Amino acid sequence: xxxxxxxLDNYQVTSPYSNLNNHYNVTIGSNVTIxxxxxxxxGVFINHNTTIGNNVIIHPNAxxxxxxxxxxxxxxxxxxxxxIGSVTIEDDVEIGSNSTVDRGLIDNTILKKSxxxxxxxxxxxxxxxxxxxAIAACSGIAGSTYIxxxxxIGGGTGIxxxxxxxxxxxxxxxxxxxxxxxxxxxxxxxxxESYLSPGGMLNNHNLKYKTKITSLKxxxxxxxxxxxxxxxxxxxxxxxxxxxxxxQRHKKEIEKIVIGQRLGQFLNxxxxxxxxxxxxxxxxxxxxxxxxxxAALGAAWKKSC
Length: 305
What we know:
Layout: H1 2-11, E1 18-19, E2 27-28, E3 33-34, E4 39-40, E5 45-46, E6 51-52, E7 57-58, E8 63-66, E9 71-74, E10 77-80, E11 87-89, E12 94-95, E13 100-102, E14 109-111, E15 116-117, E16 122-123, E17 128-129, E18 134-135, E19 140-141, E20 146-147, E21 152-153, E22 158-159, E23 163-165, E24 168-170, H2 192-196, H3 198-209, H4 216-220, H5 225-249, E25 256-259, H6 261-268, H7 272-278, E26 286-288, E27 299-301
Parallel strand pairs: 2-5, 3-6, 4-7, 5-8, 6-11, 7-12, 8-13, 11-14, 12-15, 13-16, 14-17, 15-18, 16-19, 17-20, 18-21, 19-22, 25-26
Antiparallel strand pairs: 1-2, 9-10, 23-24, 25-27
């Protein structure tokens, strides 16, 4: 990751900024393409390499193309990963005041035709938002999330532990079945998140064995790793059972299950024998995402999405 960061840093654009003609106090970077009949209000910032279609409206103080929030640890210190992707905004999109759209790491962040973004919405790097989707104020969309067409996302929503069904995001804040991962308890009396999330795994191990392990890699070298792994599989089974009931209630089948973020990245690096412990062929194939940005701990994806 350190080498990747250095490589990307060499490609960062350092071109100057300028004011957009016929728009008061609107700042744009280099290589920005803007379509016809667009309206940009004062305070709008559009970064390098952004592409904007026709009939786009961007309200005051929105930021398009800011650097994504990508970090890696080197000697236990956070270091920045430069982002060299860009943002593509298609025709008839509207973006509210003080909203931010981060550029992609390498590929683009994309807002498709006719999607509508309210005020104070954060759209992270490499997100794709489908056509005619509306997102209300104060929502946050985690990096590399894919949102389908014709979705409606209520105010204050955070897209994290989620389910997509027929191109619609199921808001777990509004639907008590399925439960959120931190609400679902297994027979041992603990919630699924405490056994399945990397933070929970490390915390449980350190408390029980008086250690100071700070990474899953260190944890995998511990003599007690098999115990942690067994607990994680138990928690994963309970999470999948809860998700399966949800799909059965909607008379749908699960196409695949994706484990992302740090756990997915970690499992990608493990031997096949460990990966196979998480496979659930009787329910659906399990994938371990190489992109730690995917916010889908045990999320289920429907084929029609």
